[in-house]
Write a structure and sequence with these properties.
- The complex is a heterodimer of chains A (about 280) and B (about 290).
- Chain A is mainly alpha-helical.
- Chain A contains 15 helices and no strands.
- In chain A, helix 4 packs across helix 14, helix 8 packs antiparallel against helix 11 and helix 13 runs antiparallel to helix 14.
- The two termini of chain A are about 15 Å apart.
- Helices cover about 75% and strands about 0% of the residues of chain B.
- Chain B is built from 14 helices and 2 strands; from the N terminus they run H-E-E-H-H-H-H-H-H-H-H-H-H-H-H-H.
- The two termini of chain B are about 25 Å apart.
- The relative contact order of chain B is 0.13.
- The chains are: A mainly alpha (about 280), B mainly alpha (about 290).
């Protein structure tokens, strides 16, 4: 293990390390802690300029009910879920199939198709922006949740294919060969042999895509407008415009927007990290 | 082997690929070429397109704002790379087995999980000239407050610092995973040879972290070139357009209140795409080499 385990060092080093840990964490998360603390301040504290001290009153209930009652934040959150969940299901389903095809079969265009997915996944969004908006308009899906989700499904399929293909490649090939010898059809091999083994990859991608899409801001502003369709990221931006200097409300809104992906991360941490490393770092 | 089985095997991959490939072609691959085409037109997004040839690109050559954006993109690219050593540093710091370390690792990773919109709001507030924490500290030390986001000289650096926060967390997790896979025997062998500290890190550990470093570079470059959210949230390109990058300038030209210049915007996007293509090719080349070795 590198660096050398603290316990092999003199006791004083161990104590110093254990003290340094919480201090480092506090400094690292300081901006976030300040937001959390401010989200429970009263408006009086804000006008009095008490931004960084302890709140004089704990207004947790008032502030959080205020944002839900006075703003469409609940709607924004709901829209976020409506975009995110179908995207996760769609992109994972499509990439299970593409990943399977690219990992299992040898055919001439294999690497070409694979590289198309990988390269497309890395392009700057801006090069897609004008045509995708135009296409969405023409399909009559501009400013709809469907339009936004359809684009996300297509784009995320690139990354998901990269991941799934590498994952299936690492599975023992003998399983598939054995099934073929038994005369099992290709579709049944996919469904009964490979798919059950893909559960960890499906879990990893699901949490990862959930976070990516939940946090998407660019496409939300390009393809939707208004509180009926916009997800929370875009909603927070427009609320920020309305709540000039109402930092306790901005903070509460930010916290609400951050909760779902944070919860997802904590619940499925191991899978999340496996996904982030693109499966390349074991 | 029977003939139907072989037929099935040549046909099967295309059936499995069809829906995914179709979606990807329609929404990603074709639009790239459409953008290239649009960049040769003047178009407001609704009416008729007018062919202007290389007109948009010629105009770009003389556009002060384009050069500001390009310069800022370079600054982003260079400074964003700091996330890699910083992430490695934190990973080394956290790669211990004391009680509760798992929770520490997760909490250090936090900034990456939350949306850049939230990161942007948090940092705008941190930088606020009258009550932001940064200026509270600066003024308490007896210096004048710095309005980071309103000063042309500092604004880009201020936004990059905000971006480095989640990006460092990302690199950290890549290195933590990588450090887990470092071969303990080589470390022990290094210790017997009296390699310690920096020498051990440089000659024994870093070579084994190569895959992690590679991914860290890839995601950091892409993160730097995709920088849009933070700029939009924190400054909207200001003050006076001084914090724009190509990604933001393109959006502004194509969709904002400044008019709907789709062709001009597309031309900017093509330039950005050409920069990105260098990295994409390098990535594909490496993948190709790895594939061949298998």
């Amino acid at each position: 293990m590198f660096p050398a385990p603290i316990d092999r060092r003199p006791a004083a080093v161990g104590v110093a390390y254990r003290t340094a840990l919480p201090i480092a964490l506090l400094l690292w998360l300081l901006p976030l802690l300040a937001v959390a603390l401010t989200s429970i301040r009263s408006a009086g504290d804000i006008t009095a300029g008490n931004y960084w001290g302890w709140p004089t009153t704990i207004n947790i209930v008032e502030n959080y009910t205020a944002i839900f009652e006075n703003t469409p934040i609940g709607k924004y959150i709901l829209n976020s879920f409506k975009v995110t969940i179908p995207t996760v299901i769609g992109a994972v389903a499509l990439s299970c199939m593409t990943g399977f095809a690219l990992a299992v079969y040898r055919f001439r265009a294999n690497l070409l198709v694979f590289f198309m997915f990988v390269a497309g996944n890395f392009v700057p969004f801006q090069i897609l922006m004008v045509p995708v908006r135009d296409l969405t308009l023409q399909m009559g899906l501009y400013n709809t949740i469907t339009g936004l989700a359809l684009f996300h499904i297509a784009f995320q399929t690139g990354f998901c294919t990269l991941f799934m293909r590498n994952f299936i490649r690492a599975l023992p090939r003998e399983l598939i060969e054995a099934a073929r010898v038994e005369g099992v059809s290709e579709i049944r091999i996919f469904w009964f042999v490979v798919l059950p083994l893909m559960k960890p990859a499906i879990a990893a991608l699901s949490v990862l895509i959930f976070t990516f899409i939940w946090n998407d801001y660019f496409w939300a502003t390009v393809l939707t407008q208004g509180s009926d369709t916009q997800p929370i990221t875009a909603g927070l931006y427009s609320l920020n415009g309305q709540w000039v200097a109402a930092w306790h409300l901005v903070s509460a809104g930010s916290i609400v927007a951050a909760i779902p992906p944070v919860a997802m991360f904590f619940l499925m941490q191991r899978h999340f990290i496996a996904g982030l490393t693109l499966g390349a770092v074991k | 082997m029977s003939i139907p089985a072989i037929n099935q095997r040549t046909l099967a991959p295309w059936i499995f690929l069809a829906p995914g490939v179709l979606f990807f072609l329609v929404y990603v691959i074709v639009p790239i070429f459409q953008s290239m085409e649009i960049s040769f037109y003047a178009w407001d997004g609704l009416g008729e397109r007018t062919w202007v040839g290389t007109g948009n690109y010629v105009e770009l050559m003389d556009d002060e704002a384009f050069y500001t954006s390009l310069k800022n993109n370079v600054i982003w690219l260079v400074l964003y790379m700091l996330a890699i050593p910083a992430g490695l540093f934190i990973a080394l710091f956290l790669n211990q087995t004391v009680w509760g370390i798992r929770l520490y690792k997760s909490l250090f990773f936090f900034p990456f999980v939350i949306s850049q919109v939230v990161v942007g709001l948090v940092f705008s507030w941190f930088y606020d000239p009258s009550y932001g924490l940064m200026n509270v500290i600066i003024t308490s030390l007896g210096f004048d407050a710095i309005p980071v986001l309103a000063d042309e000289r500092y604004v880009t650096y201020g936004i990059i610092a905000a971006g480095l926060w989640p990006q460092t967390a990302y690199c950290m997790i890549l290195y933590l995973t990588g450090l887990n896979a470092v071969d303990p025997e080589q470390i022990e062998a290094g210790r017997l040879d009296n390699a310690r500290g920096w020498r051990m890190l440089w000659y024994v550990v870093l070579p084994q972290l190569k895959p992690a470093t590679f991914i860290a570079v890839v995601v950091t470059v892409i993160g730097a070139l995709r920088s849009f959210d933070l700029i939009s949230i924190m400054t909207d390109g200001g003050p006076w357009g001084s914090s724009r990058v190509l990604a933001f300038y393109m959006y502004e030209q194509a969709f904002s209140e400044y008019g709907f210049r789709m062709g001009y915007g597309a031309a900017i996007a093509v330039v950005l795409f050409l920069i990105m293509i260098i990295y994409i090719s390098a990535f594909l080349y490496k993948m190709y080499r790895d594939e061949r070795d298998l």
